[in-house]
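Students often ask what a holo structure prediction actually looks like on paper. The answer is less mysterious than it sounds. You provide the chain, you provide the ligand, and the output is a string of discrete structure tokens encoding the 3D arrangement of the protein together with magnesium ion.
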Amino acid sequence: MHESNYSRHVDTVRNSIWRNLRTTELNRAPKRDFEIASIDHVVVEGNFMWNLIKVETTTGEYGLGESFSGPIGEYINLLEPALAGQNPLDVDRLTEDMTQLLSPQSGQTGYSQAAISGIETALWDLTGKLTDLPVYQLLGGKYRDEVPVYVDCHAGEAFAGATEAESPEIYAPDAYATVAQRVVDEGFSALKFDLDVRTEDVDTAPRRLSNREIQHKVDIVRAVREQIGSEPMLGFDLHWCFTAETAIRLAKEIEDENLAWLEDPVPPENPAVHKKVTDSTRIPILSGENLTRVEGFLPFMTDQSIDIIAPDVQKCGGLLETRKIATLAEAYGIPMAPHNISSPVGTIASVHLCAATPNAFTLEWHSREVDWWDEFYEGPDLIQDGSITVPEEPGLGLTIDEEVVSAHLAEGEEMFDIP
Ligand code: MG
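The corresponding structure tokens follow.
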């Protein structure tokens, strides 16, 4: 769609839907009379495709955010004319305005929410810079100075290097154990592996594991536990693959391994199935990376079908929406461990969220294999001794190294200007 067509589309939706949240008329103090000028988007090729978002004002200030990996450019193009001319400090109303505008496309779920999440985060970065406050302060203030991260290790080799056909040995229990020890030696006290790895040529359509396949997974879990001892937090991910009966059979066999959680054992769209699995095992069941907004999480909380929620800030609606989800979770006695596969931009945004959220206890980090991670931004390494110190600079407190980011753009991408 051409630029003018995006504007026409936005006008059509605004004129045809009763709930119109756009306004430039709300009373603003003279020193806070800011206006959004443009929204830009660029894809960086990390171990995932990282969607960086920039919101700029008419006076040249800017904020950065990140949207979840995926095709979100068209949504960003649609949202730019919708937000132009509005006050960037009205973050909650703008987020609601964007959600209402994209509801004809995909309701309140899917990539539209990922696009909105990235813009929302950029608006908080911008608001922090304009008001000289770190984002965690804007979200209600700090509960902790450091946010512990856990490492997603995939298997005996990181996700980016893993090809099942070439290297079945990376799915051997001792390969997992070796990586686990290495990660613990690097100072981390929390880690996660994928357990839904295919080790035999079987029909996966029925979502059912044979006893032999279950035994292989049990061997992996035990090998890792034996290697690193009982202290480190250890989770395993099943990526929505299995039926409840298979998930329950597997969970029973690894119940004594003191796991921090078992993640996404069954497709999460049916809370009743989730509840069946959760109720059947002492292992805490974690889920939520594919849920959006408060409404998506609510049924799983009210019926206690998830023990630990894992919202993805770059996908579920943004920082404030995740804070709202966390508040509800707290009311239902549920802790939070946010999902995160993003660049340092999205990661530091999630750090601010975790700093300002009482029931957040760890944040995912999925980029151990990205050897230019620490060159992506200016200043000292973000992760030290398994934690990220909460920044005190205004906004997200992260300055990207334009040259390094530009060197890692996805094919056909052009870096946006940083004022
Ligand atoms: Mg997962």
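The chain has a mean pLDDT of 95.
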